[in-house]
């Protein structure tokens, strides 16, 4: 039973071909470390944690989410294993990436979630192309300000 679940989760992640949709030259990859985790490794890592840590209401933040390899798998863990609706699962998922195109692909893959552009290492730094709302959100998420609740409607 569990095996079938993991197979289904793997298939969902693999609906998006690994590292596809965005052209990433070697200079860019050198600067951003955009080497995304292969699906089999994502699944193996999730298999090694206590899966109840991803149950309903347990939030997950990937501060360098790329195109969402982990967040996509976690979304489907929540749906297939914890029997959450897709929309509820998405309420638990947060991602930050420094590259706008990764943010866009990640959000599209997930079909929602709170995925924003930002510099997780320097959350106070306003990036070119980052919206004010994203800036505030990244600051709240990663600088530990108490105002975080106001953004997440929880
Ligand atoms: C090694 S990839 C990991 C992506 C994803 N978590 C995975 O495992 O497939 C690192 C990601 O971090 C992003 N990144 C690099 N520096 C960052 C920073 N200072 N703040 C946020 N994201 C950053 C890159 O654009 C890239 O998508």
Short description:
The chain has 154 residues and is mainly α. It has a single domain, classed as Rossmann fold (3-Layer(aba) Sandwich).
Rg: 15 Å
What does the overall shape look like? Answer: globular
The tally of strands reads 3
Main-sheet strand order equals 1-2-3
Strand content: 5-15%
Span of the ends, CA to CA: 33 Å
Please report the first level of CATH classification, the CATH class: Alpha Beta
Number of helices: 8
Mind summarizing the main beta sheet? 3 strands, parallel
Low-confidence regions:
none
Order of helices and strands: HHHEHHEHEHH
Q: State the CATH architecture.
A: 3-Layer(aba) Sandwich
Mean pLDDT: 92
What CATH calls the topology is Rossmann fold
Q: Label the structural class.
A: mainly alpha
Helix content: 40-55%
Itemize the secondary structure elements and their pairings:
Layout (H helix, E strand, L loop, with lengths): L1 H12 L12 H7 L6 H9 L12 E3 L6 H13 L4 H6 L1 E5 L2 H11 L3 E4 L14 H12 L5 H4 L2
Parallel strand pairs: 1-2, 2-3
Helix pairs in contact: 1-4, 3-4
Bound molecules: S-adenosylmethionine.
S-adenosylmethionine (SAM) binds next to helix 4 and strand 2.
């Amino acid at each position: 039973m569990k095996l079938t679940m993991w197979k289904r989760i793997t298939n969902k992640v693999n609906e998006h071909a690994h590292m596809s949709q965005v052209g990433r030259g070697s200079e860019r990859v050198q600067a951003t470390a955009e080497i995304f985790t292969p699906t089999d490794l994502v699944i193996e890592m999730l298999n090694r944690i206590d899966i109840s840590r991803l149950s309903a209401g347990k939030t997950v933040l990937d501060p360098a989410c790329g195109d969402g390899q982990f967040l996509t798998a976690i979304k489907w863990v929540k749906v297939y294993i914890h029997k959450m609706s897709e929309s509820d699962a998405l309420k638990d998922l947060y991602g930050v990436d420094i590259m706008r195109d990764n943010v866009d692909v990640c959000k599209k893959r997930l079909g929602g979630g709170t995925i924003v552009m930002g510099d997780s290492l320097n959350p106070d730094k306003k990036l070119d192309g980052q919206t004010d709302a994203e800036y505030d959100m990244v600051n709240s998420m990663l600088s530990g300000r108490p105002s975080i609740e106001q953004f997440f409607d929880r």
